[in-house]
Amino acid sequence: MFGSQARKKNYFPFLVAYPVFFYFLIFLIIPILYLLFLSLSKTDQFSDVSVINGFANYKSLFNDKLFWIAFRQTFILAIIRIIFIVPLSLLIAMGINKIRNLKLRTFYTLAYFSPIITSTTAVALVWMWIYDPSLGFANYLLSLFKISQQAFLLNTSIALYSIAVVSIWKDVGWYMVIFFAGLQGIPDNLIEAAEIDGASNWSIFWKVILPLLAPTFLLNMVVVTINSLREFTSIFVMTRASISGEPGGPANSTLTLSVYMYKNAFLYNKYGIAAAIAIILLVIIGVFTLIQFRALKINWEY
Questions:
Q1: What distance in Å separates the CA atoms of residue 180 and residue 185, rounded to the nearest whole number?
Q2: Are 150 and 165 in contact (CB under 8 A)?
Q3: C-alpha angle 106/107/111, rounded to 5°?
Q4: Is 52 in a helix, a strand, or coil?
Q5: How buried is 281 (Cβ within 10 angstroms: 0-12 exposed, 13-18 middle, 19+ buried)?
Q6: What does each C-alpha distance from 95 to 35, 89, 98, 284 come to in angstroms?
C-alpha cells in the first residue's frame, strides 16, 4: 500500500513537467530541427523540398558580399544599442529610485515604460514623420541651430544610426524597469552604513550598488544583446520607403542579418539560404550569451 503511494508521488513531478516539455518540443526543438534541415536543403517553396545539398547554402553565404555587409551592420547596431541602453537604463532607474514621492515615481516609471507597450510599427511610423526631410520635427530642431536639413532615412551614412536612436528610445524603458526592481532589492542599511563611513556617491555606486546589481546587470546585458542581434521590425518598417522599396535600404546601408533572412525567404524565395542565416544568427546569439555568462560570472555573496 505504502509502496504504491510512493510510486504515485514519484510520478507527480513528471506529470507537472510534461506540459512544459511538450511546449518546448513543439514550439522550440522541432522548429529548430526543421530549420536546420531547411538550411541543408535546396528549397524554393515550403512544399517542394529537394534533396539535401549539404553545406552549399552556408558556402554560398560565406561567398556573398551582402551577407558580410549584413553581418557587419548587425554588430554595429548591436554595439550601439548595448553601449547606450545599459548605462541609460541604469541611470534612469537610479534617478527614479531616488524619488520618494510615490505618485511622482509612478508617473516617471510609466512615462519611460510607455514606449515598450506601444506597437513597434506605430513607433516606427511616428519616427518616420519625425525624420521627414521637409516636415519632420528633427529637422526643425536642426534648423534652430542653423544646421542644414538631413534625410535621416535616405542618407546611407546615417540611416542605420537613425534607426538605432529609435530602437534605443523604445527599449530603454524595459531595461530601466528591470534595473529599478534590482535597486529596490538592495537593503537601505547597506547604503546608509557606507554613507556613515564617509563613502562618496561614486564609491557607493562602484563598491555597494553595482556589485549587488550584478545578477540584474547580467540579465540586462544578455537580453539587450539578444534583442539587438535580432532587431527587425523598426528596420523593416522605416526603410521600405527607400529608393529600392525593399527593407534594408537605402543601398543596403541598414541591412542586418534578420532583414537579409526575411528578404531571402519572402522576396527571393530562397528558403534554404534564409534558414542558413537563421542558424548562423542562432549560433551567434548562443555564443555571445555564453561569453557574457562567463565574463560576467557572479562572484559576490550577500
A1: 9
A2: no
A3: 115
A4: strand
A5: buried
A6: 44, 10, 5, 34
Residue 44: in which H helix or E strand, if any? strand 41-45
Whole-number Cα distances in Å, 126 to 203, 219, 230, 232, 275:
41, 30, 22, 17, 32
Neighbours of 54 (CB within 10 A): 11
Show the cell assigned to 166.
529609435
Which domains can be identified in the chain, with CATH numbers?
13-52 (no CATH), 57-295 (1.10.3720.10)
Helix (H, G, I), strand (E, B) or coil at 42: strand
Query: Cell triple for residue 129?
Result: 514623420
Q: What is the pLDDT along the chain (302 residues), one digit of tens a residue?
A: 445 555 555 677 777 778 888 888 888 889 889 888 888 888 656 555 567 788 999 999 999 999 999 999 999 999 999 999 999 999 999 999 988 888 999 999 999 999 999 999 999 999 999 998 888 899 999 888 888 888 899 889 999 999 999 999 999 999 999 999 999 988 888 888 888 888 888 888 888 888 889 889 999 999 999 999 999 999 999 988 655 678 888 889 999 999 999 999 988 888 899 999 999 999 999 999 999 888 776 655 54
